[in-house]
Every structure is written in structure tokens, then in C-alpha cells.
Amino acid sequence: MITIENLTKYYGKNRAVNNISFTINDNEILGFLGPNGAGKSTTMNMIAGYLPMTSGKVTIFGHDISREPVKAKLDMGYLPEIPPVYPDMKVTEYLSFCAGIKRIPLGKRKEEINRVMELLKITDVKGKLIRNLSKGYRQRVGFAQALLGDPKFIILDEPTVGLDPNQVVEVRKLIKSLKKDHTVIFSSHILSEVSEVCDRVVIINKGDIRAIDTIENLESKFSTSLALHIKVKGSKSKAASIIETADGVKEILSIDEEGNDIYSFVVQLDGDAEEIQDKLMSDLLGNQIRIVEIFTEKPNLENVFIELINRPVRKDSLEDLLDEIVPESDSSEDEDGEDEEKEEI
User: Fold this and answer.
1) What does the pLDDT read at residue 224?
2) What residues in the chain have per-residue pLDDT under 70?
3) Which residues are CB-neighbours of 140 under 8 A, at least 6 positions away?
4) The pLDDT of residue 104
5) What is the pLDDT of residue 270?
6) Do 46 and 29 form a contact (C-beta atoms < 8 A)?
């Protein structure tokens, strides 16, 4: 199991990650979601031991990443957002170099390199300079180095960026297959990808965790926010009046005119969707309003994500309500050297 406890990161006076805690279970794929600047890459860099934390603790299979970095990293493979490849090396040279860093025995090195090249389908470019590869191939070479040595814990930050649709499908299948023998934390902006691959998700925004749960549970918690789409033909004012005053209708979210007396309504419901829909159809038809189309849109991960990141964070402590005090240990950081991490601020 991997545990993240009270993880915090400041850049000068800016707090990028705010005292977050969560766990990653054995043989689990955990999705790590958030908008640009939410603190995702900063968090993953701290978990990997690449970036020092201001405070907190990361434990990887019993090893503290700060106190026992070598032992912790021997169980870890890491693909950062920008693949750490050397453009003047050939693919096999680079993977051999990485295998040496990971202390893979010489006698097993060639076999292991061939294994990861087959997994990522990069054998056909093994003799080429990395600088001459497409972005998608460079991404897969970076992914291959993360899998070298068959680490138990794998960190993947936007692993499908730059891949074409066929490659995306292949990499998704590979990530899902890793669950059998590995623990994975996986960041992506493609929510359909996360829904397909991940067991649980952590949603973060502005350095704060907004939710930790399975996708199914998150969607069910938002089931009271059902949206009814209804397209009618007839009087706009009469239809709007009937819909607005119907039992179980919370509010009309939008009305679009489509011509020929046809209007599309999006309505937020509060209650049993099927019962409300049946009653509403009866009321409309009884008032000579013809129904052209009607369906209920259930919440999905995208709806949940948008609502959660737009919710204000409740201030629970005096420290949250006052101006933030920068820890003395970090106050002397050189802010001019932070360009690579500014996205997370």
C-alpha cells in the first residue's frame, strides 16, 4: 500500500498543495484528476521523490520516500508529464542506460529491454535516435523506461498525451493489464479514459482534495441532479409554464428555439425521474403540447468533476481564514527557478 499523509508544497508564498492525504491500495488503479494548475503534477513529483515536499509524508510499501529514497524508488516506475528521454541516444541505448540506473542485473538487462519494447510496441524504432521519433513514440519510450524492472508501483502522469487514437486504445489496455501485478496512480485530462481504466479517483483543485471515491459512488451521489431534456411543438409560453410548475421540477436550465414552433428545454429535476417525466408528459399532452423528444441525462464523471471543482472550499480553521504564513524552511526558495512548476501554482 502507498500512503500519502498531510502532503503540502509551497513555492515561495504560493501554496500549490494543501495538506492532502489519501491511500493507494495494492493492485489498484487510482485516477488523479484536476484542472490545469490544480496541483496534480506537483503531487506526483513529490510522491516520486523528484520534488521535495514542504511537509508531509509519503510511504511506498513501508519505505518513507524522504528517509529511505533508494529503497522506496526500487519499487517504483515513473512517467512524468514530459518524458525524461535523451534525444541524442538511440532507443535501446536509452533503455539500457535506464536499466543500469534501476540496477537491473547485466544478465537480465537485454531480456527486460526487449520485454518493455514489445509491451509498448517500439521494437521497430529501437535503433533510431530519440530526437528523430514522433511525439507519440517518444511518449511510449518514456513509458517503457517506467516499466523497466517490473516495479510494483507505477506513476503515470498523462501517459496518452501525443498518441494517436489506435495507440491510445493500446496503452489503455496495457494500463488495465498492469493492475494484476502492480499498483498504479494515473493522471489524465480525458475523463472517459479515467472512467474506463480506474478503480477509484481523487479529484483535486487548487491544491485541495474535493473527492476520493469510486466513479460509481460519485455518480450515484449526484443522482439527484438529473437533467431532463424535452423537445416540444406548440406554445412556448404555455409549455414553459407547465414545465416550471410541475411537481419535481427544480428549475428550467435553458430554452432553445429550433423553428416551426419547436422548443428544447433542459430541466433540472429533484425526485424520481421516471415519475416526474410521466406526469410532465401527461400534463403537456393534455394541453395540446406535442412532445417531439424526451430523455433523462444521468450524471457522469464529467458532470461530477465540473460540479466538484467549482464548489467553494469551506474554511475550517483560523489558518485558512487568515493570510497564509509561509513556512520558514521554504521562504528562501529562489522563485526565479520555478518555471517548470508554474503550471501547478
Assistant:
1) 53
2) 222-226, 298-300, 303, 311-345
3) 120, 121, 122, 163, 167, 171
4) 93
5) 77
6) no
* DSSP for residue 329: G
Q: Give the burial string for 182-206 (b: 16+ CB within 10 Å, else e).
A: bbbbbbbeebebbbebbebbbbbbb
The reported pLDDT for the residue numbered 222 is 63
> Which residue's entry shows cell 433542459?
266
The CATH homologous superfamily for domain 2-75+152-220+307-344 is: P-loop containing nucleotide triphosphate hydrolases (3.40.50.300)
| Spatial contact of 164 and 56, defined as CB atoms under 8 Å apart | no
pLDDT at residue number 146 = 95
Q: Give the phi and the psi of residue 52 in degrees, each rounded to 5.
A: -70, 145
The CATH 3.40.50.300 portion of the chain extends over: 2-75+152-220+307-344
Q: Bridge-partner residues for 246, per DSSP?
A: none
What distance in Å separates the CA atoms of residue 26 and residue 200, rounded to the nearest whole number? 12
Q: How far apart are CA 322 and CA 306, in angstroms?
A: 28
Ranges of CATH 3.30.70.260 domains, the chain:
224-297
What pLDDT was estimated at residue 313? 57
pLDDT, residue 330, reads 45
Contact 63, 72 (CB under 8 A): yes
* pTM of the full structure: 0.72
For 52, the grid coordinates are: 521535495
Q: What's the confidence (pLDDT) of residue 299?
A: 63
224-297 is classed in which CATH architecture?
2-Layer Sandwich (3.30)
